[in-house]
Please model this.
Amino acid sequence: MSHHIVEVKDLRHVYPDGTEALRGVSFRITHGESVAIIGANGAGKSTLLLHLNGYLATRQGTIRIGDFPLNKSTLPEIRRTVGMVFQDPDDQLFMPTVFDDVAFGPLNLGLTGAEVEERVREALGRVGAEHLRDKPPYRLSGGEKKRVAIATVLAMSPDILVMDEPTSGLDPFARRQLMALLKDFHHTRIFTSHDLDMVLELCERTIVLHGGEVRADGPTLDIFRDETLLAACRLEKPFVMQGCPVCGR
Model:
């Protein structure tokens, strides 16, 4: 299914203050891949993700989602294909109730009545948030907001799921629940994360950004075994690979 393919070529982005966030980033992600984009703070991860469905305009370089180049004319179609979950759920929740927020996307797809109700019910159920449907978003905890923000995207049935720091703000139970959800999403998954244990468990491929450039792109386990690379990019191995701090095993 070519519409699941993400292709980025020589992507560059400079912010108005002169900060060069991306410096010629290129990669290709095919249908069904689960890919992590990792790097230290300021590496360009969030900037890159915000380009993948047009929240930041592409001024230098190109992005293709399947058969479509990302531009103003293709943006509506691409945003139906690429579901984006922001790092801060407050950027995604703006309606009077959780139900209204999750229903917003399906309604904009032209669905009505029972179809919208089913989409909302299923999406909230997948993130364990059915009991929140009638609450106003501002009354939710940080972890609850995160789960609802994910539900707003799942309700759109995207072919490509893009998430910026998905486990940020989640307690251990909610983190495990989210990881199970991501394992069950059988289309293309792309996310940034400082949770490298999650990356090791969920992603067969990892792209390392440093200083706005791709420093490595390959099998996740190979990336995490490369201590020289990790040190140069201000990263460490996942905790599960570091051994016991007491006995050294």
